[in-house]
Each structure stands twice: as structure tokens, then as C-alpha cells.
Write a structure and sequence with these properties.
about 325 residues, globular, Peroxisomal Thiolase, Chain A, domain 1, ACP_syn_III_C, Thiolase-like, ACP_syn_III_N, 8 helices, two-stranded antiparallel ribbon, alpha/beta
Length: about 325
């Protein structure tokens, strides 16, 4: 989907202190760990930074879209309204985008439909803290080490440091079974925690018993949505200066992102993500802030933000930098 008048007016993140990663061949150096800081506070602190950078006043905001990949707080409670109260603090709608690690990228497309007047703005936030007894951040998946952190971005019609040229998504719903394995759908067993490797092992046993698991490759979704959206944006992978991707470990990152896109790690944000870990939906926007504030992207440069989520689905956005960081 191509956009004519959609901008990123401000971006911010809250990055906890890091702890060393295990020397297990993953290529990771360290992972962010937030201790007992709630996920929604990580999101709200990032939101405050993004708002201050945006130049928008609280009265300009027409909505807040919040996302998270893991539990945000008590069942039946509204995390988006907590973030709203601790950022904009205005009587506007606050919605939760439940799409795992694509929450912010998908939220950006939703935000476009909420911006009507020239001064309208939407705050997108995300935050996760995986430091609970039900999650082993080091062993939940061979594809990544789970990191805590928050990120936020302000979508605007008025202008900003980057113009959104196009955004899109593509899914392979037949693969949704891979992320539930043999777990029951009802009643949901919340005591099992978040462990993708257990589900992989279940499918491995099923295959050995003659049951073929759903087939597909995330890299194919990544390349399909990226090249289609780049074409809609009037850009190309060669035109793109940098790619902001999720914080996967080195092997999966290469297999799912770098090789399908035909780029090397230097064009991505591996230098950063190998020190932060996989912070859910925050990763692409943490990467964008890192590039922009360091002056590694300048006006006229195209940047591809891309991610994947259970479903399976891949989504991306192509932005053109319009301003230098102060």
C-alpha cells in the first residue's frame, strides 16, 4: 500500500541494561534485561521520548495503538489505556494490536486510517518484559534470545523526520499450527509458558509418526512482501540504504532475512541487534532510531523496516529520511 502523506514525526525507545549472552555459536553478544520494570512502563517511557521529538502537542493525538508480544499485566485489564494515561493523558481511543512481533509495523498501517486532519497524530507504542518464571529467555527458541525493551513512534500527516512511502504484509495461514504444536485451544493452558522449542519438538515427533507438519519458509514471506512493497514505494533493494530487521540470532537472521533480501549483515542492523536481542515488535523501530540518531542515514536515504510474526506473517514499511537528527 502506497502512502502520499504519512510521516514518522518522532521515534523513541527505552533500552534496559544488557547482560552477556551465552557463548553458544548464536553470534549474540548480549541481551537487554529489564528486571522488574513492567512492560507497559518500558512502552510509556519510549512514548514520552517519541512525543517530545515529534513536535506534536497532546491535543493533536487522535489515538494510541499499543502492542506487546507477551503478557502486559493482569487479565481483563487494559494495557493500552495505562500507556495512554502515562503519555498523552487525553480522552482518546487506545487500542491493542495483538500481532506479536509485527505489532508496530501493522499498527502503522492502521494509524494511517485514523489520521484525517493535517495536525492529527497517532502514538504507536510497544513494550515487553520476558523475565517471568514461565519464560526462559535463553532457551525459548533457537531463532532468538528474548530481550526486554520498549519503543514508540508518532505517525503524523504534518511532517516528520521520515516519510512513509509504502507498507504491506503477506501471510501463510496454513503455518499457524507450527506455533501451537499439540497445545489445547480451550481451555488455554497459561501455565505452560512461552516455549517455541517444545512445539518444534512436538512436530518433530509427529513427523516421525508419519504426520507431515505444515510446510513453508518465512524467508519466502519476507522476500515477497519486501520486494512488492519496495515496488509500490518506487524503490528497490539496491536503492535502500539500510534494513531494520528483528533481533534474530546469526543463522536464522541470515536464512530468513539477509539471504532472501540479497543483502549482507552490514546493510542490516546486526551490529546493534547482536547486542540487544529480540525485543518483540520494538526491534525495527529501535533499529531506525539507532541509525537516525547516529547519522548513519541522511535525507533522501530509503530505509526498509521489516519483521515477522506467528501466523505466519511478514510485514514491512519503506521510509525515506527527510531530516537529520538534531
Amino acid at each position: 500500500m502506497r502512502f502520499e502523506n504519512l510521516y514518522l514525526a518522532g521515534v523513541g525507545s527505552h533500552l534496559p541494561e544488557t547482560v552477556p549472552a551465552p557463548d553458544d555459536g548464536s553470534g549474540m553478544v548480549s541481551v537487554m534485561v529489564a528486571g522488574d520494570t513492567p512492560a507497559v512502563d518500558l512502552a510509556a517511557q519510549a512514548g514520552d521520548i517519541a512525543m517530545k521529538r515529534s513536535g506534536h502537542e497532546p491535543d493533536d493525538f487522535v489515538a494510541l495503538l499499543h502492542s506487546g508480544s507477551y503478557h502486559q499485566g493482569p487479565d481483563g485489564w487494559s494495557a493500552p489505556h495505562y500507556v495512554l494515561r502515562n503519555t498523552i493523558d487525553r480522552p482518546i481511543t487506545a487500542l491493542e494490536v495483538r500481532q506479536g512481533c509485527l505489532g508496530m509495523l501493522s499498527g502503522l498501517r492502521l494509524a494511517a486510517g485514523l489520521l484525517h486532519d493535517e495536525d492529527d497524530a497517532v502514538l504507536l507504542t510497544t513494550g515487553d518484559n520476558y523475565g517471568t518464571p514461565l519464560v526462559d529467555r535463553w532457551r525459548a527458541s533457537r531463532m532468538f534470545l528474548l530481550a526486554d525493551g520498549g519503543a514508540a513512534v508518532v505517525a503524523s500527516r504534518r511532517g516528520g523526520f521520515a516519510k512513509v512511502l509504502a507498507a504491506g504484509a503477506v501471510s501463510h495461514p496454513e503455518m499457524e499450527e507450527l506455533h501451537r504444536g499439540g497445545e489445547t485451544l480451550f481451555p488455554p493452558d497459561l501455565s505452560r509458558g512461552l516455549n517455541f522449542e517444545e512445539r518444534v519438538a512436538w512436530w518433530r515427533d509427529q513427523w516421525a509418526a508419519g504426520v507431515t507438519p505444515p510446510m513453508g519458509h518465512l524467508g519466502e514471506l519476507v522476500s515477497e512482501v519486501a520486494f512488492r512493497t519496495l515496488e509500490e514505494a518506487g524503490s528497490s533493494i539496491d536503492r535502500v540504504k539500510r534494513v531494520c530487521h528483528v533481533g534474530f540470532t546469526e543463522g536464522p537472521l541470515t536464512d530468513i532475512y539477509l539471504d532472501p533480501l540479497g543483502i549482507d549483515a552490514a546493510k542490516g542492523t546486526w551490529e546493534l541487534t547482536r547486542t540487544t536481542g529480540h525485543a518483540g515488535a520494538a526491534d525495527p523501530f529501535i533499529g531506525l532510531e539507532w541509525l537516525w540518531t547516529r547519522g548513519e542515514v541522511e535525507p533522501g536515504d530509503h530505509v526498509l523496516l521489516i519483521g515477522t510474526a506467528p501466523g505466519m506473517e511478514s510485514g514491512c514499511a519503506v521510509v525515506e529520511i527527510t531530516e537529520r537528527s538534531a
